[in-house]
Amino acid sequence: MLKSRLLQAAFGLCIAAAAGIDTAYASEAAQSAAPELSADFVAHDFQFSDGTVLPDVRIHYVTIGTPHRDAHGRIDNAVLLMHGTTSSSQEFLTPLMRRELYAPGQPLDAQRYFVVIPDGLGRGGSSKPSDGLRTRFPRYGYTDVVEANHQLLVDGLHVTHLRLVLGVSMGGMQTWMWGERYPDMADALMPVVSQPIAIAGRNWLWRQMVIGAIRNDPDWHNGDYAAEPVQWLRVMPLFAVLTGNPARLQAQAPDRKTATDLYDNLVEQARKSDANDVLYWFDSSYDYNPTAQLNRIRARVLAVNFDDDLLNAVDLDVMQRLIPAVANGRFVEVPETAHSYGHQTQTHPEVWKQYVSELLAQH
């Protein structure tokens, strides 16, 4: 069941078998296990940003830890984590994430913090096109994903203030939006592998390749297909190329045969996803453009990007130009090292967890 590290990262599956957990960690986890809950919140009469209303929208979520209440009865230790485009809450629930983030003494020690990890709208156990509506499902955008998470927190969990909002990739983009949309709700924001600009250039071109391959597949039938369209599957390995580290990819596929085998495996991994869901995943960034409202952000911001991330290329100088618009903002470019994984360094908190500690210590 344990896939190669590259396959796990490439499609955001990040599923590890029990054999992947070392004995010492398993023993430590058993001794210090914090309460963990997996549940669904239903938002009734949910209105999308285009005006469409669904009577019930389900948001699946996981919580780790216990809410702490202040003298006024308000939860004061909540942290929101938001995952990447092709993933779900499972991205933050791998053995590595648990060991590096939530274990005793780690930055988000679950004995201290109440960690909330939703499946973003359209993904995982949350409402999505493949539940039955297919392309009759409303065309959601990042604004809708953020609003659904907000309703989960406020109406479902009665969390009205957050110690930290941390998101990776798509979740990082939504972290910028969170700071603008709810400027007084969080003490700190940490967007990882993201930039506060509309998706364009290389980052949009490859997404459009996937979208175009789905929509132009003769079996797609405007989303009402009897059998899954397959043309997009042959494009999807591009995701691994753009989100991985070139040196690691070369080591993973050092000759033509292993590279071809890797391609075939990536195609098979993609086959596990529904074409309509995938189409919505990549199209949903259409309303992402936070640049003009960065000055609305009041929370402390520490943005973290990686030198070897091809999707958020550091040579575009985006962060240098835009971070001055954030009153309490700064950014870090983590140099490429032997421990880098390109864009997928997002799944390796051992590389960036020090910045979580640093940001929370400023409170």
Give the N-to-C terminal Cα separation. 42 Å
CATH superfamily grouping of the domain at 23-198 and 290-361: Alpha/Beta hydrolase fold, catalytic domain
CATH topology of the domain at 23-198 and 290-361: the name is Rossmann fold
- pLDDT < 50 runs, ≥5 residues: 1-31
Strand coverage percent: 15-25%
The chain-level structural class is alpha/beta
State the helix count: 12
Signal peptide: 1-26
InterPro entries: AB_hydrolase_1 (IPR000073), AB_hydrolase_fold (IPR029058), HAT_MetX-like (IPR008220)
Organism: Paraburkholderia fungorum
Protein name: Homoserine O-acetyltransferase
Please characterize this protein's 3D structure.
The protein is an alpha/beta fold and 363 residues long. It has a domain at 23-198 and 290-361: Rossmann fold (3-Layer(aba) Sandwich). The protein has twelve helices and eight strands. Helix 6 (201-215) runs antiparallel to helix 10 (275-283). The radius of gyration is 20 Å and the shape is globular. The model is unreliable at 1-31 (pLDDT under 50).
